[in-house]
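Example: ABC transporter substrate-binding protein.
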Amino acid sequence: MSTVMRKIGISILLAGTMLATPGLALEVKLLDGVTTPSENNPTVEAGKYKKDAPWVIGMSSFGVNANTWTVQVAHEAEAAAARDKRITKFVLLDAGFDQKKQVADIEDLIAQKVDAIIIQPVTSTSADASIEKAVAAGIPVVLHTGRIESDAFTTEIQGGAEHFGKVMGDFLVKELNGKGNIWVLRGLAGHPEDTNRYNGLVESLKGTDIKIAAEENGDWQYDKAKKVCETLYLNDPNVDGIWSSGADMTRACVDVFKQFGAAIPPISGEGNNGFFGQWIKDNFKSVSSEYSPAQGAAGIRAAVALLEGKELKKHYAYNPPGWDLEKAKTYYREDLSANVWWPSELSEDQLKEFYSKQ
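Written out as structure tokens, the predicted fold is:
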């Protein structure tokens, strides 16, 4: 069994503390920075999925090993499940980018009669029918890291992908004074997070004279993005800025410019320790969109709240502002590897176990 799939026992203060206000329903704090949209946001009524503990919770990941961020999401979810002793079993299944495998995984969790299911969809449609089956079987479904076309899920916590992409796009528009040529490094083709982050960029570029000179998929992976950036540079090194959909790809492109001894153009980043180290050392122009891997823990908290019988909203939005270099400096850890992402809810012991430099 891999390290990612192990149970983790820790005791730390949760960001998901249940807050009580006299005379009002209990509020569930799922994750710092999460808000509840006021429009078209029905309530999941209190008690609908209430069930006595102990509980078994299942999770279907689109790809645990898709990149270093998804690995940490798994760690964060496992840690949150281990902290709650009412959860006697946490079943994490990995679709490995395969739509058919995700369908089979969700069907398996339904057959196991788990008490709640958390889903990170492979595509915007791959899990729709299976989610409907789960809910029909009385199993609440929590969705995160990618919106879907069906509304059959019980509740969702979505890092606003358009917001994420627009934070990056707005940065480039400002740095380039609204004109110039940019490269666009996209994530995994067909994944809803990639599509919607890109839509945020498109929104930023409206009314500007900024042109997309090249657009390639780096799959949110360092190695693939490095090859993409090397090819782009050799074809035409004259680029005014780079929009990168994820920090592993940003790190790769920065390394390409450094290996060619070229000035690093303004480039968007994300809350990754390796990227923060580059940013601090080389002092290039950037912004960090926030996309915490603790969304994995938030999914666990949402599932628990439903099983406790608490009232939730159907939609939760995670749209924090971008980080500047000074904020990145407060999170950067020289003693940890490039593979840890911020903000995190992992304990100090876990951070050292998973991410200490070897």
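The longest strand covers residues 209-217.
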